[in-house]
Amino acid sequence: MPMIEQVIGPSTEEAAASILERCEALARITDEPGRITRGFLSPAMAEVTTLVARWMEEAGLQTELDIVGNLIGTYPCTDDDAPVLVLGSHLDTVSDAGRYDGILGVLLALAAVEALDRAPLPFALELVAFADEEGLRYGVPFLGSRAMVGDLDPAWLRRRDREGVTMADAIKAWGGDPTEVRCRYAGRRMIGFVEAHIEQGPVLEQRGLPLGILEALSGACWMRIRFDGCAGHAGTTPMALRRDPVPAAAEMVLAVEHLALREPDLVATVGKMRPSPGASNVIAGSVEMSLDIRHPDDRCLARSIESLLDNCRSIARRRDLQMHHEVLHRQRGVEADARVSALLRETANAVGVETGELALGAGHDSLIMARIMPMAMLLLRSPGGVSHHPDEAVLPADVGDAFDVLHAFIQRLARETVPDDRKTDPVFIRVDGDSGSTGVDLDCKG
Questions:
Q1: pLDDT above 70 covers what percent of the chain?
Q2: 202 pLDDT more than 90
Q3: What confidence score (pLDDT) does residue 438 get?
C-alpha cells in the first residue's frame, strides 16, 4: 500500500505536546478541589465545555450545545446531504479520576481537525464532546450519547442526585428540555463514529504496541442490591438472634468473586457498599451494594446475572433477610464495524504505526453510537494498565502516533469519498427516523 502523503500542519511532537497541555488545563477544572471530578451538568462541566468550545471555534468549527449539554463542533460542509463522520468522546469523569479517560479522545480529534487547516471536505464532520459517559451523578451511564441517539428513558428523568435534584430539573437548569430528546442523525447518511480512547488495561503494553484497533465491546449490567434485616444494639443483641445484613453482603461479595474467577472472560465488581445507619456500635438494618458485571458473550452475561441473583435470594432466605435489586443499566455487547476498522488499521500501517486488535470490557460511548451507525475505536496504550485513578498515564509518543493516524484517516476518507451516487466505497448507513434503527442507504451502497 502506498504511503499516505506527509501530514500537513504541526509536527507530530508539537501536536502531542499541545494535546497533553490541554489535558492538563482541563484537569485543573474540577468539582472537588484536589481531585479530578466532573459530573453531569455540574459547574466544572460547564467550565470545561466553555473552554473546549472556544478551542473548537478557534479551529473553525461551528459549536452548539444540545439539550443535555453535549458539545458539538461542526466542520463546514456545503452539501446538506453529505455523509457524516462523527469523532469524539466524553468530558465528564469518575470521582478522583485521571486526566485522559474520555478527554484525550476529544482533544485528539480536535487536534486532527485543526491540522486540516480548514481545507474543504467532501463529507460532513462533527466533533462531539459528550456531557456524561461515566454515570457519576445519577448512576446511569452514557446519558450524553443516549440522548444523541434518541434513547433517554423517561424514568431516568425522575432519578435524584445526592442533593435531591432530579435529572429533569438538572437538564432544565442547564437550559434544555428533557422532553425534546430526538436522534440527532435521523435521515442522515453516516460514515460512522470513531472514538480515540486510552485502553484502560494492560494488553497493549504487554504486547509492546502503541495503539490498538477495537474488535468488540463487552456487554454490561449495573445493579443495586439491598439486604434488609433488623437494626439493633451491638452490645445487647445476642449473635444467634441477629438479622444482620452485613455478613450477607460479605457473603455475596465472595460469591461474585468466585463466579468471576470460575467463568472465563467474566469480570464482576462490587465497588460500593453502604450499611445503614452506619454506626460502629449499631447492627445495620440494611446494606446497599453495587454490582458491575461484564462479559463479551451476552448469553453468558445473562446466565451469570441470574446465577448471582439466585445466590442473593438464597443468602437472604438462609439469614431471614429481605433482598431487593434494581437494574440500573443493561447494555448488550457490540462488535466494531469491520470496514471502518479496517480503514483505520490500514491508515495506521500507511503512516508507519503498528497496531493490534483487542476486545474491551470497559463501556464507552461507542457502545451507544453503534446502535445507529458504524463504529470503530482507536485505542492508546495505558502504562501500567491504570485508569479511573489519578495515576492514569499516556506516553507522548503514543499520543503523537494517534494524532497522525486520526489526521491521516480523515485525509484518506476525503480522497475516497466523492459526492457521486455511483461511488461504491465506503458503505454509508442511512439512519431511519428517531427510533435509532438503521438501514443501508441504497443510493450509496458498497
A1: 91
A2: yes
A3: 37
**Which sequence spans correspond to the domains of the chain?**
12-218+333-444, 219-331
- The neighbour count for residue 156, using CB atoms within 10 Å, is 18
pLDDT tens across 265-309, in order? 899 999 999 999 999 999 999 999 999 999 988 899 999 999 999
Upstream peptide bond of 76 is cis (omega within 30 degrees of 0): no
Largest Cα–Cα distance in the chain?
A: 83
Determine the Cα–Cα distance for residues 76 and 386; give it in Å rounded to an integer. Answer: 38
Residue given cell 462490587 in the structure block? 270
Q: Give the three cell numbers for residue 217.
A: 465491546
Cα(first)–Cα(last) distance of the chain, in Å? 21
pLDDT in tens, 272-281: 999 999 999 9
To the question of domain 219-331 being in CATH 3.30.70.360, the answer is yes
Cα distances (Å, whole numbers) of residue 341 to 31, 172, 331, 411: 36, 38, 22, 16
The pLDDT mean for the chain works out to 90
Q: What CATH number should be reported for the domain whose range is 12-218+333-444? A: 3.40.630.10
| pTM confidence score | 0.81
Peptide bond into 426 cis (omega under 30): yes
Give the span between the Cα atoms of 352 and 360, in whole angstroms.
24
User: In angstroms, rounded to a whole number, what is the distance separating the alpha carbons of residues 343 and 374?
Assistant: 12
- Which residue's entry shows cell 431471614? 320
Helices and strands per DSSP (H, E), number in the chain: 11, 18
